[in-house]
């Protein structure tokens, strides 16, 4: 089973049939995918600083590469300077970014999306905890869209994120 998903089809043929059903459902609801922006049967996906592959979910090695290359401090002065720099960096990151929960497994995800006359927004949640969110202002031409089109735009925006 790819990515260790419990409800996912086990073979490429089953995936293809499942994909066909999903695309037919989307077409029936007049929602269309742009295939030039779609990728199927990937062996690895990078998402929110993590890598998802057949072995599970891992921290993206590129995100921790610089930390692994840090030289170990030797003297008390170097240790103090290192800790002060690390604390300042941690403080900056915590103050500038929202606190998000890490995903637990690969089940029970819910995506909420909404639109207003000002912008589009989406939240990815799992077990009532916020995993990720995104929002953006409407582009000038989007301000003329109908409510239905804005809501659809919010869904597309959420799926792209």
From TrEMBL:
GO terms for molecular function: RNA-directed DNA polymerase activity. Residues 84-160 form the Reverse transcriptase/retrotransposon-derived protein RNase H-like domain. This is Reverse transcriptase domain-containing protein. Transmembrane segments: none annotated. Gene3D superfamilies: 3.30.70.270. InterPro entries: DNA/RNA_pol_sf (IPR043502), Rev_trsase/Diguanyl_cyclase (IPR043128), RT_RNaseH_2 (IPR041577). Keywords: Nucleotidyltransferase, RNA-directed DNA polymerase, Transferase. It comes from Tanacetum coccineum.
């Amino acid at each position: 089973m790819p990515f260790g998903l419990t409800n996912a089809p086990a073979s490429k043929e089953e995936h293809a049939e499942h994909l066909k059903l999903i695309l037919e459902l989307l077409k029936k609801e007049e929602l269309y995918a742009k295939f030039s922006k779609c990728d199927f049967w990937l062996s690895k996906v990078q998402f929110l600083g993590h890598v998802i592959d057949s072995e599970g979910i891992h921290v993206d090695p590129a995100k921790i590469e610089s930390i692994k290359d840090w030289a170990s401090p030797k003297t008390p002065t170097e240790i103090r300077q290192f800790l002060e720099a690390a604390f300042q960096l941690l403080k900056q990151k915590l103050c500038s970014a929202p606190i998000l929960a890490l995903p637990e497994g690969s089940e029970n995800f819910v995506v909420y999306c909404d639109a207003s006359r000002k912008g589009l927004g989406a939240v990815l949640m799992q077990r009532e905890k916020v995993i990720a969110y995104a929002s953006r202002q409407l582009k000038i031409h989007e301000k003329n869209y109908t409510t239905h089109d804005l809501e659809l735009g919010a869904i597309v925006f959420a799926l792209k994120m």
